[in-house]
Amino acid sequence: MRSLLRVISGRPARILPPIVAGLAVVGVVALRAGASAGSPARTVIRDRADVAGPLDLARVSLGQKGRGLVVSFQVRGKISGRLLGPLPRPGDRMPRYLCLALHRKGRPGVRRLCLGRGEKGPWAVGVEQLTASGEVRSAKTIAAKMLAVHTDLVRAELPDAAGLAVGHYKVHAESAWSGPACKTLAACHDRAPSGAGARFELRPVRLAGCSRAGIGLAFHGPAGKNEVALTFDDGPSIYTPKVLAILNRYHVHATFFEVGIEVPGNAAVMNRILASGDEIGDHSLHHESFPSFGSIATTAGRIRAATGFEPCLFRPPYGSFNSGTVANARRAGMSTIVWDVDPRDWSTPGTAAIYSRVVSGTHRGSIVLMHDGGGPRGETVAALPRIIRTFKSRGYRMVTVSQLLGQPLRWRPA
Question: Which residue from 164, 188, 283, 356 has the highest number of Cβ atoms inside 10 Å of its Cβ?
């Protein structure tokens, strides 16, 4: 195929056209058969038929998937999603909810996760922080990836453990409903287990790599979900810890494309990137145009030696690539990732310009190019908090590139 000539980031680049979710519990908890000491566990709560009504809890499960959770509710009646509230209203005389309450060992208060839809809209998870006396201290809704929706069962994947800290928890499920099934005017309630609660451990994990080979070439992700990917090139550098601190402060994720010659001596911050749930990509050995397979493979080897992470993504320096570049990355097991939003922050146009160019050009599925190395990056660092706040106000979820593209990832104990 004949190569096309295009200019990316103000530099000429040869490109190709775009190619474009055990533990078993019956009052107690036991390790899942075959689970290793380092593998995430799953808690299953089975409850007897003790309350008459559609939301009488039969089986509830909670498991860890990467840094996220998978929660499942099964009832003996029927679930009507549109009548379930993701955020139960305090004092509601006619409540209807399915919730999971988690109390972290040694800490006051309870985190409650409720799955529902309300009167309209997609399924969501209500996240409430309750005080020791049961008062709601904070509440919000987050997006949920629905894995199963049946008349008697719902199962969802929650991103980043819904803000839970790693550690040991006591957990129990709660449901409530009202209507003819209740013997009195008061609402009916169920709890599982009926006693003190089951045990669950949320373990620290970090990215280890991809579970399948690269997908080829991508400029952006799918536009069907409110997700975007922030990416940072040319590090690691003295600016990388500052970028990482901002991402952690706002609880969002990004992908760092790193240059091989910058890896030595920077293992600590690279491991902090992975421990934060962010991703590392390959950006060639010397930041050269049209890098060879050796350049890409050597950089991947340095990343692997420093962190134990096997990079899944390659970004061509300057956006310069041809069919050979894409083939070299694929041979190394990586997808070639370009971008569709470029604020040209490498030219230091000013913090306001970087912010304006990013937010005006970003849409669902965008891959945003920025830099944390290769020169003075104070303007990018200064613009980042406002960019994140604007994206959050628009309902965007900031994810890694692999997550944006639906690329399955492998995790290992941290």
Answer: 283
CA distances from 142 to 101, 120, 163, 396 (A): 16, 15, 10, 11
Q: Which of 47-83 are b and which e, b meaning 16 or more Cβ less than 10 Å from the residue's Cβ? A: beeebebbbbbbbbbbbbbbbbbbbbbbbbeebebeb
CA 116 to chain CA mean position, Å: 20
Q: Is 160 a catalytic residue?
A: no
What is the Cα–Cα distance from 173 to 81, expressed in whole angstroms? Answer: 17
Point out the catalytic residue in the list 47, 233, 278, 345: 233
pLDDT confidence of residue 275: 86
pTM of the model: 0.75
CB 375 within 8 A of CB 346: yes
Catalytic residue among 253, 282, 371, 372: 371
Residue recorded with tokens 């498991």: 63
DSSP H or E run through 387: helix 378-393
Could you list the beta-strand ranges (E) of 243-306: 254-258, 279-282
Average pLDDT, the chain: 85
Domains and CATH numbers, the chain: 24-203 (2.60.40), 207-413 (3.20.20.370)
C-alpha–C-alpha distance, residues 213 and 200, integer Å: 33
Name the amino acid, one letter, at 263: V
CA distances from 75 to 53, 150, 154 (A): 9, 10, 9
Q: Is 371 a catalytic residue?
A: yes
Looking at 77-86, 226-235, 348-357, 394-403, which range is the least confident one? 77-86
